[in-house]
Amino acid sequence: AIIFAHNIAASPILTHILPMKTDAAPKPTRLEDYTPFNFDLSESRFDFRLDPRQTTVRSLLSLTRTAPGPLVLDGENIDLVSVEIDGRLLKRTAYRVTQTQLILDDVPDQFALNITTRCDPSANTTLMGLYVSGGRFCTQCEAEGFRRITYYPDRPDVMSEFTVLIDADKAAYPTLLANGNMIEAGDIDGGRHYAIWHDPFPKPCYLFALVAGEFDRLDDSFITMNGRTIPLEIYVDPGDAPKAAYAMDSLKRSMAWDERAFGREYDLDRFMIVAVRDFNFGAMENKGLNIFNSSLLLADAQTATDLNFERIESVVAHEYFHNWTGNRITCRDWFQLCLKEGFTVFRDQEFSADQRGAAVQRIKDVRALRARQFAEDNGPLAHPVRPTEYLKIDNFYTATIYEKGAELIRMLKTWLGDATFRKGCDIYFDRLDGTAATVEQFIACFEAASGEDMHPFMQWYHQAGTPRLTVERHQTPTSPVISQVVSFSQMTPPTPGQADKAPLMIPIRWQAIGDDGPLMDPQLTVMTTDTQTVSYPRFDVPHSLSIMQGFSAPAILRSDATTEDLIRLMGQDPDAFNRWEAGQTLARRLLVDCARALESGTMPEPDPALGAFFGALGKTLRDDSFDDAFKALVLTQPTGMEVLMAAAPIDPIAVSEAGDWLARAVADGLRNDLLQTYAAMKDSGPFSPDAASAGRRALKGRCLSLLAARFDPLAASLAAQQLDDATNMTDEIGALITLSRLGGQRVESSMESFFEKWKDQPLVLDKYYSVQAMRHHADGIHAIIRLAETPTYERSNPNRVRALVGGFAMGNVRLFHRLDGSGYRFFADQVLDMDGRNPSVAARLLGAFEIWRKLDAKRQQLIRDQLDRIIATRPSKNVLEIAQRMRGA
Ligand code: ARG
Ligand code: ZN
């Protein structure tokens, strides 16, 4: 057994940390400064003596020098008790301790290092490192949390084989978990017990995890492609095990899919997932021991919406897929974050497409990309998919690195073709297994697979900003022998720190479409220069061009398509994405015109295009060859963010009112279709979370919400009825939101009964707070402030804060953007309040201000004042970095 002695428990803290140097502007970390670590750390052992107030960690590290220089270890907010080399206690003068490092100037070339430290998990409000949530111990180490546990080289390129002993009070912490396989467990004196875990796969410390507490467990198993039986265990709060069933099912489907689609088999002897309520983001792929925000793991019909089920499926898959793309092959440094995140998002999107339908999945992913990543890429926080510097790496877990990163992988696949893409992936898994890799090494595998020069493609990783792709059809003389011509030109606007942009390699999938369908096979034009002209055969019939089918590149299309073209594509495009997109383009144009008209105080003229648009929508709605989820998306407007970006600078309230106007117009034009569809979708039988059933509920919800936009009295009674009859959360919350939009007496009482019904279910209570946060309360910000003062509002719980404060900033256009500045001020206060506890969550919340330059001048001034106020309070590095970048140098 590898049990360490606990003889240090009573010894005094030996060190005093040097005083913090203040005022100096924090120094950024730069990609160009990368140097390998100067020691090899083949084995790491840790001995945790858990206590909520004073946990003792003793480490034993086997170090071998690979380059000259001192041994520098990272550490933050921990007390150093002792340092030993090869069993000899070091004198205090033999090392230096700063706020963030332990430095040993003089060490042998090969030695064993013992470090003993203490920390206070119960006081750890940052939720990074070791902390307590609901009386249970858990950890979050990515990106730089391990340094809050012990002194260690906290960098992803130091990979080590971990053995972990956990010793804790047995009654309070009956379950003791860490990565890998459990090799020993037993009781010890004083009502304590221990477990020893060993992970045979060398890993960086950001993948370390430890969990201790009282849990219920859901068990299942999976038989791998090579016939190995893997026990699967999901650990949840007592009583919650039935709510983990969907996550378990998703896990098994993910494991099977990764074998099928990528040839990847699971490697350890067991796989565990733990749900925790207090968590900074979604989930974490710790080796063999994933830790999840309970909101992305627990679901049942009564308490979770279809969207919750969908996210659980995709995040369970995402974290599982990281086992190969992230863990077996990790990142050399944090600048390579997209190497694991972009690729893994691509993999989870492909999985969801396989499970739920490719077209619908693609549409949802692109909608999210446009609302979040395009907003980021066209604002003050724009950064390349592979950034070159950061203050806090936590601030770079962004839509650009995740979602745009995934788009780059998708373009590789589109460009090289399925078989070559898969070959490149196989080379990657084969060549780089067990290493900490770079984006260049990844791309080199596709070069090996395809023989293509990948150099031009790399520009996508270096250059921030969303390219604009302009498409023009050129008239050619009417002669059957002369072909027709389409020209593409690209332009990427400047982004902070990158004024000049080079042309990108843009794969454009396109096709000519006539009134009876396609007139040619889909073409792939791979653009590499600023402009490119392509010719195609002449047709004798009217036709339109379907450009960027499947959204073949993360670009903003500026097409010269007429309304007639778009209506034709809505009816005839064989590419489901572009069929949907044609309607969106039309709606976007209508919304932008309307928002501008409303801003200048005029009512929009009835647009002649509307009639044809409703006709095309109605036709889709009645067409049985489309699935309900697709129809629901066709009835969904472009996000307010898309319209805001297209119409900027603009009054955001005008954008929101334009949305109401279009919804009303659609509801007027399609009232009967909507009523009939609503009625047809109504009785969906017993609840099932599958895609088809969820699609029915989504379509039903869309119809109800459109009818409500017209303040149809019928809509109010339908919503009230739906709320009373609801047997699942999708219907229940959909009805509640509709009622809250319609206003009237029923709202307050419905809100109150919802609260009473669900106040003991934290995840549903989060929904309550976000619905409340998005309402147009008559007394404005005071209502929101009151909500933040209710006893069930937990300001230290990230989910609750995101529900109220995030819901308010992102979902309550009217109150957040009030011209008296009250919304912005409240929001900034909340960010600062959170910053005192949890800087990474605070910085992420603050991102809601990133759109400020797209707003009208008055609001720009109001937000600028709040950003300046935040900076003046000397916030955390996390918040400072975001506020300064947003403010612009
Ligand atoms: N690797 C995790 C995931 O994508 C997310 C970790 C987020 N870490 C952070 N510091 N924001 O699944
Ligand atoms: Zn990830």
Question: Main attributes?
Answer:
8-stranded mixed sheet; 889 residues; disordered N terminus; binds zinc ion; alpha+beta; binds arginine; 27 helices; 5-stranded mixed sheet
Rounded Rg: 28 Å
Question: What's the number of helices?
Answer: 27
> Portion of residues in helices?
40-55%
The class by helix and strand makeup works out as alpha+beta
EC number: 3.4.11.2
Domain Peptidase M1 alanyl aminopeptidase C-terminal: 564-886
Family: Belongs to the peptidase M1 family.
Domain Aminopeptidase N-like N-terminal: 112-207
Could you characterize what this model shows?
The chain has 889 residues and is an alpha+beta fold. The chain contains 27 helices and 32 strands. Helix 6 packs across helix 7 (439-450) and helix 15 runs antiparallel to helix 16. Residues 1-22 have low confidence and may be disordered. Bound molecules: arginine and zinc ion.
Short structural description:
This protein has 889 residues and is α+β, with helices and mostly antiparallel strands. 41% of the residues lie in helices and 20% in strands.
SSE topology sketch:
Layout: E1 29-30, E2 39-49, E3 55-65, E4 71-74, E5 79-85, E6 88-89, E7 96-97, E8 101-104, E9 110-119, E10 129-133, E11 136-140, E12 160-169, E13 175-178, E14 181-188, E15 192-203, E16 210-213, E17 216-223, E18 229-236, H1 245-262, E19 271-276, E20 283-284, E21 289-293, H2 306-321, E22 330-331, H3 337-356, H4 358-377, E23 389-390, H5 399-416, H6 418-432, E24 436-437, H7 439-450, H8 455-462, E25 468-474, E26 484-491, E27 506-514, E28 517-518, E29 523-527, E30 531-536, E31 543-547, E32 556-559, H9 563-572, H10 576-599, H11 609-622, H12 628-634, H13 640-647, H14 652-669, H15 671-682, H16 691-709, H17 713-725, H18 729-742, H19 746-758, H20 762-773, H21 781-788, H22 798-811, H23 813-816, H24 822-835, H25 839-846, H26 857-872, H27 877-887
Parallel strand pairs: 2-12, 18-19, 19-21, 22-24, 25-32
Antiparallel strand pairs: 1-23, 2-3, 3-9, 4-8, 5-6, 5-9, 7-8, 10-11, 12-15, 13-16, 14-15, 17-18, 20-21, 25-26, 26-30, 27-28, 27-29, 27-31
Bound molecules: arginine and zinc ion.
Arginine (ARG) is lined by residues 142-143, 281, 283-285, 318-319, 341, 394, 397, 840.
